[in-house]
Specification:
The protein has about 80 residues and is mostly helical. The chain has one domain. Helices cover about 80% and strands about 0% of the residues. It has 3 helices and no strands. The radius of gyration is 19 Å and the shape is elongated. The protein starts with a helix and ends in an 8-residue tail after the last helix. It comes from Cerrena zonata.
Length: about 80
């Protein structure tokens, strides 16, 4: 791998890490801001299709981003010849 291609790969890897980290932080911030409203309008209602879809969309994204965040923290294996 040439030096220029290596730096481009490393640069894109850092960009992916920054974007994933910022997405996780923004989603957690949004969840914290809306916790009181979510408690009143979602948690206190009976289970139904809408409540299930809400939880899936809201916390499914958090789980997906958290897994992606953890995967990006693991260093890539180096290919030494």
């Amino acid at each position: 791998m040439s030096s220029n291609a290596y730096f481009e790969f490393v640069s894109q890897d850092y960009i992916n890490k920054y974007i994933t980290t910022s997405a996780v932080v923004f989603l957690v911030y949004d969840i914290i801001l809306n916790l009181v409203s979510e408690y009143h309008f979602i948690w206190r209602t009976q289970w139904g299709a809408v409540k299930s879809l809400y939880y899936f969309a809201r916390y499914g994204a958090l789980i997906n981003l958290s897994i992606s965040f953890i995967v990006h923290l693991i260093p890539a294996p180096s290919h030494k010849m």
